[in-house]
Design brief:
- The complex is a heterodimer of chains A (264) and B (263).
- Chain A is an alpha/beta fold and 264 residues long.
- Chain A has 2 domains: 210 residues, Rossmann fold, CATH 3.40.50; 41 residues, no CATH class.
- Chain A is built from 9 helices and 9 strands.
- In chain A, strands 5-6-7-3-8-9 form a 6-stranded mixed beta sheet, sandwiched between helices. Chain A has a 3-stranded antiparallel beta sheet with strand order 2-1-4, with helices on one face.
- In chain A, helix 3 crosses helix 4.
- Chain B is mainly alpha-helical and 263 residues long.
- Chain B has 2 domains: 156 residues, no CATH class; 103 residues, no CATH class.
- Chain B has 10 helices and 2 strands, in the order ααααββαααααα.
- In chain B, strand 1 and strand 2 form a beta hairpin.
- In chain B, 17% of the residues are buried.
- The chains are: A alpha/beta (264), B mainly alpha (263).
- The interface between A and B is medium-sized, with 23 and 25 residues.
- Bound molecules: adenosine-5'-triphosphate and magnesium ion.
- The site of magnesium ion has 4 residues of chain A, from helix 1.
């Protein structure tokens, strides 16, 4: 169970500069799904995810989560690196494991984020920004989280690495039945990878439901994914596309099918 | 966290010019060595409370900052108990003798540090970084032929401005490491130190990188410290509130002066 009951969070509570970041959040989040968390800058996304593993305590309200291992990958995760080899950096969370088991696990998660074993002995500070990010994500994955939260995991990565990491997380989720929460400004990522979406505005949840539905909200004020844009254009030109089609492959399949039908 | 951050509200204390605040602080930190009666400090603390009330800075901010240094104050003044043997013994256990003289000395010493701390915090909270560095320029101006005054002010300006940024950064990285199961409440002192290293290294690296970026950014915008001179050298302007403050400061110091010589 992952449930928020009337949760509010106020920064600098009681001071003149106090700031209501989250305002009366009530939600029960579906488990074993990939959940997208979207909203404009400053809408409270990062604050929201920090409540999950008790890094922040709600100013009021209650949170019920019956999972113990909750992994949170921070925005700009590469800033947390401190060890002198990639191996030690990733393995820091499982220091107590036997050496062989440890190295096996490290290689596993290294593979998950798309790095090979030549990286093991490298100095993490000498890697590129994207590679550092991958190392930091691996350092969380090694803890085998039951809930995995990624705060803008793909900002600043090349498109191929973005896709690689997200595909791997999707596979991981299927294998281990994790609940994954992805914070992202990139609606293409959200539409391709998320089963459900939480939409925050000014610290309030204004939508929680299936991904394709969020893009049809009347007051949706973020950039649409380009599959949705294309579908809308097609609809305008009298080529009907059902609104629940937002995946690239689905759209292609649907259009090809329709064109073939017409030919016959 | 709110370590030494300018607290931006409007109040009488905020309006007083920095130069006067500094004058007050300098005078007070000289006088404080001559005040050795305990009850005078009670009066001063009472005065501080009124000033804090006037400044509209919440008291808990002061308390938070004082709490951080309190253990240090207690330790350094507490140690004196073992080394001062003058006066009448009022307490005795094993080999430790506490004399009335030592106790009085320690209490006044603690009061000195705490009152000074409160006044400094009050100035920190009610003065923006720009005004502070302007005041520094004024103070060092007579030395401008020997010292790069503008550069010093700029360095100070940047340093002060980055204290809150660094403290936020420290907070954030602490959280990031906590979410990797790094245990900061570890009983073992060695693993505790090791765990804090995992926060300090990233913070250091970030601040070096930040300094680097800042230097580049300033250079690319053609920063030249001498350009500031014209702007800085405009006259100190006294407002009405400053005259009240001046009267207030005079009265307080005259009172303290009389207390000192009458004692
Ligand atoms: N440490 C802090 N102190 C004070 N206010 C804060 C702090 N952190 C965040 N806030 C405020 O809380 C609000 C929500 O911030 P939050 O970081 O959760 O937004 P976000 O949705 O993650 O934005 P972004 O997409 O830019 O990361 C913002 O208005 C911000 O100004
Ligand atoms: Mg954020």
């Amino acid at each position: 169970m992952i449930k928020f009951d009337g949760v509010s969070y106020i920064y600098n509570h009681g001071l003149a500069c106090e700031k209501i970041a989250l305002d009366n959040i009530n939600i029960e989040i579906d488990e074993n799904k990939i959940i997208g968390l979207i909203g404009k800058s400053g809408s409270g996304k990062s604050t929201f995810v920090q409540l999950f593993n008790k890094l922040l305590k709600p100013t009021s309200g209650k949170i019920f989560i019956d999972k113990k291992r909750i992994g949170l990958v921070f925005q700009y995760a590469e800033n947390q690196i401190f060890e002198i080899t990639v191996e030690e950096e990733i393995g820091f969370g499982i220091k107590k494991y036997a050496p062989e088991k440890k190295i096996k696990r490290i290689l596993e998660v290294l593979d998950l984020v798309g790095l090979d074993k030549s990286y093991l002995k490298k100095n993490p500070f000498e890697l590129s920004g994207g590679e550092k990010r991958k190392v930091a994500i691996a350092g969380i994955l090694i803890l085998e989280p039951e809930i995995l939260i990624l705060d803008e995991p793909t900002v600043g990565l090349d498109l191929k690495s973005q896709k690689e990491i997200l595909e791997n997380i999707k596979n991981l989720k299927q294998k281990f039945n994790m609940t994954v929460i992805i914070v992202s400004h990139d609606m293409n990522v959200i539409s391709e990878f998320c089963d459900k979406v939480i939409f925050l505005r000014d610290g309030k949840i204004i939508f929680y439901g299936d991904t394709y539905k969020v893009f049809d909200l009347n007051d949706f004020d973020l950039e649409l994914p380009w599959t949705k844009k294309l579908a809308k254009k097609l609809v305008k030109k009298n080529f009907f596309v059902p609104e629940n089609i937002i995946l690239f492959n689905d759209l292609v399949k649907y259009v090809v099918k329709k064109i073939k039908e017409k030919k016959n | 966290m709110n370590v030494g951050k300018f607290y931006n509200v409007e109040s009488v204390i905020h309006d007083i010019s920095v130069e006067l605040k500094f004058l007050f602080l300098v005078l007070f930190s000289i006088e404080i060595f001559f005040i050795n009666k305990f009850w005078v400090y009670i009066v001063i603390l009472f005065l501080i409370l009124i000033l804090i009330k006037l400044s509209r800075v919440p008291f808990k901010l002061f308390f938070r900052n004082v709490k951080i240094v309190l253990p240090m104050i207690l330790l350094t003044s507490g140690l004196n108990i073992f080394f001062i043997s003058q006066g009448n013994v009022i307490l005795k256990f094993f080999f430790i003798r506490v004399t009335d003289y030592a106790l009085n000395l320690i209490l006044t010493m603690m009061c000195r540090i705490i009152t000074l701390l409160f006044f400094s915090l009050l100035i920190m909270f009610t003065t923006s970084v720009n005004k502070l560095s302007r005041a520094v320029i004024y103070i060092f101006m007579p030395l401008k032929n020997f010292l790069p005054v503008n550069e010093i002010a700029m360095i100070l300006n940047i340093a002060l401005r980055f204290i809150p940024v660094l403290s936020d950064e420290f907070d954030l990285i602490l959280k990031a490491q906590k979410s990797r199961q790094i245990d900061f409440d570890d009983k073992n002192i060695f693993s505790k130190v090791k765990n804090y290293v995992s926060v300090l290294i990233p913070v250091f690296i970030l601040s070096f990188r930040r300094a680097d970026d800042l230097a580049l950014a300033m250079e690319s915008r053609c920063y030249n410290p001498d350009n500031n001179k014209k702007k800085v050298l405009k006259k100190i302007k006294f407002e009405r509130v400053d005259f009240y403050a001046l009267i207030f400061i005079s009265v307080v110091h005259v009172l303290i002066f009389f207390l000192i010589i009458s004692g």
